[in-house]
Design a protein that fits this description.
Structural class of chain B: mainly alpha
Protein name (chain B): Ferritin-like domain-containing protein
Number of strands of chain A: 0
Strand content of chain A: under 5%
Oligomer: heterodimer
Distance between the termini of chain A: 42 Å
Number of domains of chain B: 1
CATH topology of chain B: Ferritin
Organism (chain B): Nocardioides koreensis
Radius of gyration of chain B: 15 Å
Domain DUF4439 (chain B): 6-139
Order of helices and strands of chain B: HHHH
Distance between the termini of chain B: 27 Å
CATH class of chain B: Mainly Alpha
């Protein structure tokens, strides 16, 4: 997959005329797409297993779908399997931990990108994830079971 | 845009942010709006620190750090906490876009600094009653 997303090219350090075949960021984008696809699946799975967590996890699914689109990838199809979790609290904890890890990886990907435009988009993605994580509340007391 | 130009543009934005946050703090009651006052005070302190870092960075790059303007245009009608919060939110969103541009025009530790500042600005927007976006700092995707 090419990293030539439809990101704005304002003020980048990119060289001219890099084709998809020789895009030095192609493998990086592939890794990001794979991780976001997996996380979108996790959000759908948790929402299917625990409908009352939908409002908490759906924003992450929507975020990943939007980011995949920006990267020129297809969002995962609907119809997620219900995962196997030890309860809603455990499921929500898994979402939080993996989303935090992904957010840090987006930062790392931004730092590793050869293309300035791609670095900018990945950094903005990490900022979007940081906002969602800041809004992710723990389960209210008494709802852990 | 060169790295030096991008850092200078960010420094100019920080000068403006420090000025405007100072004005917003003056318009906010510490006793009546403690949460908003604390958020503005925190932002003011952070942007001052960033201004100082950027000033040194410009010098390190061999440039002459852009000076602060004598004054900046303030948002109109800062006569309610809601308007102050909105002004702070819009200011922080503008800073996020500036940091994002800095990301595109830097590498290594300077890019890391810009990414960190972008993430901080995005989260800070929420303290000013903002809502999460898909790509904070990337205005071309604001409708997503």
């Amino acid at each position: 997959m090419a990293s030539g997303c439809d990101a704005s090219r304002d003020g980048s350090n990119d060289g001219p005329g890099v084709s998809a075949a020789e895009d030095p960021d192609a493998a990086l984008v592939d890794r990001v797409v794979a991780e976001l696809t997996e996380l979108a699946g996790l959000a759908a799975s948790v929402a299917a297993a625990y409908p009352r967590l939908q409002s908490a996890v759906r924003p992450f699914g929507d975020l990943h779908a939007a980011h995949l689109e920006v990267l020129g990838a297809e969002p995962p199809s609907a119809g997620a399997d219900r995962g196997s979790y030890a309860g809603p609290a455990a499921a929500l904890k898994e979402v939080r931990v993996r989303e935090q890890r992904s957010q840090r990886r987006l930062v790392d990907a931004s730092l590793a990108a050869r293309s300035g435009s791609l670095a900018r988009v990945l950094a903005c993605m990490s900022a979007g994830a940081a906002q969602r994580l800041a809004r992710l509340s723990p389960l209210p007391a008494g709802e852990e079971a | 845009m060169s790295t030096l130009d991008a850092v200078q543009a960010t420094l100019a934005a920080e000068h403006a942010a420090v000025y405007v946050y100072g004005a917003l703090g003056a318009q906010t009651s510490r006793s009546a709006e403690p949460g908003l006052y604390a958020a503005i005070s925190s932002a003011y302190t952070e942007h001052r620190a960033r201004r100082d870092v950027l000033t040194r960075t410009v010098a390190d790059l061999g440039g002459d750090p852009v000076a602060s303007a004598a004054s900046y245009e303030l948002p109109a009608r800062l006569d309610s906490p809601e308007r102050v919060a909105r002004a702070a939110r819009e200011l922080e969103e503008g800073c996020a876009a500036t940091y994002a541009s800095l990301v595109a025009n830097t590498a290594g530790v300077r890019r890391r600094w810009a990414v960190t500042a972008l993430n901080d600005a995005a989260v800070r927007v929420l303290a000013f009653r903002g809502t999460p976006e898909m790509l904070p700092g990337a205005d071309e995707y604001a409708d997503r």
